Amino acid sequence: MEVLPEEIARKYIGGYGLVAWSLYNEIPAGVDPLSPQNVIALWTGPVAGTPVPVSSKYVLGALSPLTGFIGFGISSGGIASELKAAGWDGIVIHGRASSPVYLYINNKSIEIKDAGHLWGKSTWDTEEEIRRELDDDEIRVAGIGPSGELMNRLANITNDRNRQVGRTGMGAVMGSKNLKAICMRGTESVEVAALDELMELCRDLYLRCRGPATEKYRVFGTPANVLVHNRLGCLPTNNFQKGTFKYAEDVSGETMLKNLVKKISACPSCPIACDHINMVEEGPWAGAVASVDYESLELLGPNCGVGDLNAITRAVEYCDTLGMDTISAGGTIAWAMECYERGLLSKEDCDGLELRFGNAEAMVEAVRRMCLREGKLGELLSDGSARAAEKVGKDSSQYVITNKKMEWGAYSMRSLQTSTLGFATSVRGADYLRSGSYQDDVKGKVDRYKLDRSRGKIVYEGENLYAAIDSMVICKFTRGIYKDPGEMARVIRLVTGFDMDEEEMIRAGERIHNQAKLFNIRFGAARKDDYPPPRAFNEKLYDDVSDGAVIKYEEYEEALSGYYEHRGWNEEGVPTKELLKKLELDMGMGVE
Amino acid sequence: MAGKKIIVCDMDKCAGCELCEYACSIYKDGEINWNRARIRHIRIEPIYDIAILCRKCESPECMRACPREAISVIGDSSVMIDEEKCNGCGWCVEACDFGAMRLDEVNDHAYTCDFCAEYEQPKCVEVCPFEALEFTTLDQVSFDKGKRALMRVIQEKGAG
User: Fold this and answer.
1) CATH of range A210-405; options 1.10.569.10, 2.60.40.420, 3.20.20.70, 1.20.1250.20
2) What is the chain A residue with the closest CA to B11?
3) pLDDT for A455-485, tens place per residue?
4) Does A200 touch chain B if contact means CB atoms closer than 8 Å?
5) A385-392 own/partner pairs: CB under 8 Å, 24+ apart
6) H/E element holding A277?
7) Long-range contacts of range A571-578, CB-CB < 8 Å, 24 or more positions apart?
8) CA-based diameter of chain A, in Å?
9) A56, A148, A465, B13: least buried by Cβ within 10 Å?
10) What is the mean pLDDT of residues A153-158?
């Protein structure tokens, strides 16, 4: 047990900030991500366990076995509030157990328990089994499925059935440590600096959460984006070859709500409720149950040419229960489908599957085999498309849609170019959640079909704000309910008692981002890692809306340099000494 | 007893956010500890949520189970627990069909919802963002149900 120094708590806020700080100070260069030398850091934020709307969130990070750089995911559900009520802000895990175990935190007591009987079980069964054997239905469980046990580099962590630490292969790191699950139960009260004032503000925030800023999440959930993006020609289709999908209506949030959604569910402390739980009642995928979000739906659906929500629901269920990232799964299968259609993969390579765009059955079956690393196809795909392309060779790497070996989120590269700059410069690989720079494209604030030097500023500002939000940690769906970032800083003030203002909060965001970047530089990151994949430059997008869109290489170079300049980094993307001094980073291990 | 008001939870609306539990502990106990709330969210996966609390039974099982006569019924059937007489044996907890009786293990006595007697209306109802909780009479609940049934028929068959 260690006490977090107050100075660090203030400089890094919590969540993502403390994950970046922990990993930077605990993992030296040269560590293999799947070795016992890797470190898992799980941090809540200061607001976890309080009535602040959608505050029960945690960040779990480690050196990523997928990207080789900083890896982390942010999940909701009851983990963060429960850990807070047990009296802890975070957990840092070293080493490796000699046989399968799970970690059980019950208020002040910490036990490492045998998980031999849980090995091989799905995340949902693991959660139920642990509650049963410890005779407490309110225990929260974050666990891995067979995919994490097999150390698939796309493996995720699932808690409360529907919430995931999805990206960067964190499930594989748990698997490498023989750690099946992290469980917690807390019954103590959670203390804040100014409860009455905080509750008064929260009541107001709840009302705002029921207003127009969150309407789309409440009614259709995130799949509301399907038709919006299709209209804009930026709905990745057939492995990002197109930006519109013929069957978009069939997989829209509107259709899903009408035909499949049986429950709209909330995380603890959430007045929005975005979780739309589908239950398939008939057809080949009858019985499938899953909470389906836009990214999962899009990459397993339109990006694989699949227009069948029942099949998508089953594929998401496989990912959630067997333990794999839906986004990377969809991106990897779409790559394999393109290779199949171009003759780079044979039916024999796919163990008999007709892996063509639009073949829903093949998509679902490929997901299952990837999760279980089953057969030749499972073996080939379960570490992601970039590694698969290295094995397949020929020109298959031309069709890989990744950055830092992580599959691209569901935002078209060529018809949302500010978004692409944000994805490609993201510290954890292709990622819409680090800067949210797609918003300026989608809202028409900039010309989304071109790039220039000024786009760097949009990404820079987005990243700093998002790093602060991810460190508090509050849900990004609530970002629109605050009057301005100053009001978020007020929440931090009322909870912690620190007299933090907007400027200090954003400065902390900038510090955190730089700490993550320094971690990446320790593992070899340079300018070469901040580019979108070849398709963005070499091929024009073809569809009805964004026909002919392509990223001009010179424009991208300009935008990237502009981004580095705004950041105060040199042309290789390395922070200058003056910047690090100004930001007062905690450099424990020193700069290499 | 048409006038007896209780808190009802509409399972179709309850999303399981547990803000009722937060509100209960904050307004009643002056601390954040949802574990001690008088209202309790229960989820049965994958799609059922409900918030459960005292139903103001006419002749409550909790009262009949108490060997020390620490439990009485006041006003419109609110349950009152005499903390002096109660020794925290927990028979009332076992007796309640709804799991609405809770035990304060630190201070050794039972406790349950008093419908925020000191406030204008129950705080959980005020805070519930999904309008799933309602402080109302069962008579009004049945009236609302009838009204809803009629509205459904009108919608399906068309007005007039």
Assistant:
1) 1.10.569.10
2) A263
3) 999 999 999 999 999 999 999 999 999 999 9
4) no
5) A385/A328, A385/A331, A385/A332, A385/A335, A385/A336, A387/A153, A388/A332, A388/A335, A388/A336, A389/A335, A392/A339, A392/A344, A392/A345
6) strand A275-279
7) A571/A527, A572/A526, A572/A527, A573/A425, A573/A517, A573/A525, A573/A526, A573/A527, A573/A529, A573/A530, A574/A521, A574/A526, A575/A514, A575/A517, A575/A518
8) 66
9) B13
10) 98
Instruction: Provide the pLDDT confidence category of residue A592 given band limits of 50, 70 and 90.
Output: very low
A63-67, A395-399, B43-47, range with the lowest pLDDT: B43-47
Domain boundaries, chain A: 31-185, 210-405, 417-583
Q: Is the pLDDT of residue A590 over 80?
A: no
**Candidate from A187, A209, A271 with C-beta closest to B35:** A187
Residue-level pLDDT at B158: 74
pLDDT at A564 (0 to 100): 98
Residue type, A404: K
Query: Among A160, A135, A81, which residue's Cα sits nearest to residue B33?
Result: A81
**Scanning every residue of chain A, which has its alpha carbon at the shortest distance from the alpha carbon of B50?**
A265
Of B10, B14, B17, B52, which to mutate for an interface test with A (greatest number of A Cβ within 10 Å)? B17
For chain A, say whether B134 makes contact (Cβ under 8 Å): no
- Name chain A contacts of B23, Cβ cutoff 8 Å: 51
Amino acid at site B23: A
Flag whether residue B73 sits within 8 Å of chain A, measured between CB atoms: no
Strands B48-52 and B40-44: antiparallel
pLDDT value for B159: 60
Whether B33 has its CB under 8 Å from any CB of chain A: the answer is: yes
Q: A51 and B32 in contact by Cβ < 8 A?
A: yes
Decide if B22 touches A, using CB distance below 8 A. yes
Give the distance from CA B143 to its chain's centroid: 20
Question: Taking the C-alpha atoms of B30, B32, B33 and B38 in order, what is their torsion angle to the nearest 10 degrees?
Answer: 50
Domains of chain B: 1-53+115-160 (3.30.70.20), 55-112 (3.30.70.20)
Which residues in chain A touch residue B130, judged by CB atoms under 8 angstroms apart? 266, 271, 273
Q: Which two tokens stand for residue B112?
A: 């349950």
Closest residue, chain A, to B12 (C-alpha):
A263
pLDDT greater than 50 at residue A392: yes
Cα A32 to Cα A19: distance, rounded to the nearest angstrom = 18
pLDDT, one tens digit per residue, over A226-285 is 999 999 999 999 999 999 999 999 999 999 999 999 999 999 999 999 999 999 999 999
Distance of residue A77 Cα from the nearest chain B Cα, in angstroms: 10
For residue A531 the two structure tokens come to 């580019």
Please indicate if any CB of chain A lies within 8 Å of the CB of B83.
no
C-beta neighbour count of A110 within 10 angstroms: 14
Chain A residues touching residue B18 (CB < 8 angstroms): 268-269
**Among A49, A266, A289, beta carbon nearest to B17:** A266
The one-letter amino acid at B112: T
Q: Which CATH number fits domain A31-185: 2.60.120.380, 3.40.50.2300, 3.40.50.970, 3.60.9.10?
A: 3.60.9.10
* Phi and psi angles of residue A388, each rounded to the nearest 5 degrees, phi first: -65, -40
Share of chain B above pLDDT 70, in %: 98
3-class SS of residue B52: strand
pLDDT of residue A589: 58
**CATH topology classification for A417-583:** 1.10.599
* pLDDT above 70 (res A332): yes
Question: What number is the average pLDDT over the span A518-538?
Answer: 97
Q: How far apart are CA A108 and CA A185, in angstroms?
A: 10
The chain-wide mean pLDDT, for chain A, equals 96
Least confident of A188-202, A344-358, B141-155: B141-155
